[in-house]
Amino acid sequence: MFGGHELSERTLQYLGAVARFGSIRSAATAIGVNASTISRQIAALEDQLALSLLMKRGRVTALTEMGEVVCNYGRERARLTRRFQNSLQEYRTLERGHVTIGSGEGIVSVLIKAVLHRFVASHPGITIEIRTAPLPQLVQMVRDDEVDVCIYAGTARDPILNARPFQTEPLCAILPATHPLATRDTVTMEDIASSPLIFFQSHFAAQTYVDAILEDRQLNCFPAYRCDLFGTALSLVAHNLGVAFMTKGAAQDYVDLNRVCAVPLDHPIAKSFERYAAVRAGRRLMPAAFDLWRDILSTNSGLFQTPA
Q1: pLDDT at residue 307 greater than cutoff 70
Q2: For residues 172 and 251, is the Cβ–Cβ distance under 8 A?
Q3: For residue 60, which phi and psi values (nearest 5 degrees)?
Q4: Cα 118 off chain centre by
Q5: Locate the HTH lysR-type domain: which residues (predicted)?
Q6: Distance CA 127, CA 288 (A)
Q7: How far apart are CA 172 and CA 245, in angstroms?
Q8: I want to staple 242 with a disulfide (CB 3.0 to 4.6 A). Which of 52, 141, 196, 288 is the partner?
Q9: What DSSP string describes 258-272?
């Protein structure tokens, strides 16, 4: 913006052509425009700026010092415009972009196994940022648009969330591979109450389910350990130091290595452990983030719904 007026892109192109070809007539011939049109447009630009942009050097028309400044500005503006248009095209065709996922720590392995392999294969140019946090922080990240999509276990009743269930998996007792109950199809809380128990912090969804089961069964159990990371709890179990509680999906890497066993808890509450995907209500997702949302919701459910 110069003198309160936007500089015409076409006039800037004419000025650049004169600088390149050495005269208005030669520039006009090269770009297929009448010489009078170029002359008139550049004269109008000089009046607008109150500066001379061209000067004569013998038989050659050259740029003044200020003409060089304006011409360089025109080239830079054209370059930025091309970059902007290319970026728009890349985003529209999903060749480039950035998606941020918020996740509960115990769900990251589920996300990787169930969703990310397929998503990365179909969106090779997209950078994926994964941020793990407790549920209250995940909700705040969604509120502040710090994440595009978040996934979590349990229920967060917040009107800001457009939350949809995408997967249900029973809550399990995570036992050492050598535990006497490791080969059972199910176990009750009474079966394992005498074992060293590994609890999580109270804000963990898995812990709220465990607390509800203990209250329903009127059991007073005190943990031998209390952790704030699923990995820590799994390591304790793998070293035969106690019994933890989470879904098989959260413990899958350790289960696959035969370091622990995941045995479903025999209780109605344990059967309804749901995972949710959420976006901020009313937010319009970029194409790549929307595709990720769709992929998560279709995991093990065939569910496809558009964020409101």
Answers
A1: no
A2: yes
A3: -105, 135
A4: 15
A5: 7-64
A6: 10
A7: 6
A8: 196
A9: TSEEEEEB-SGGGGG
| Domains of the chain from N-terminus onward | 9-90 (1.10.10.10), 97-166+280-297 (3.40.190.10), 171-272 (3.40.190.10)
Kindly tell me if the per-residue pLDDT of 306 is higher than 60.
Answer: no
Number of helices and strands in the chain (H, E): 12, 12
3-state secondary structure of 125: coil
* pLDDT tens, position by position, 135-152: 888 888 888 888 999 988
DSSP labels for 5-19?
BPPPHHHHHHHHHHH
DSSP string across 177-204: TT-TTTT-S-B-HHHHTTSPBEEE-TTS
Other C-beta atoms lying within 10 Å of the C-beta of residue 237: 28
Euclidean distance between CA atoms 44 and 303, whole angstroms: 61
Q: Which of 105, 97, 15, 109 is nearest to 61 (CA)?
A: 15
pLDDT beyond 60 at 64: yes
**Backbone phi, psi, residue 215, to 5°:** -65, -40
Between 6 and 210, name the one with better pLDDT.
Answer: 210
pTM: 0.63
Q: In sequence order, what DSSP letters do the residues of 38-95 get, joined into one string? A: HHHHHHHHHHHHTS--EEEETTEEEE-HHHHHHHHHHHHHHHHHHHHHHHHHHHHTTS
Amino acid at 142: V
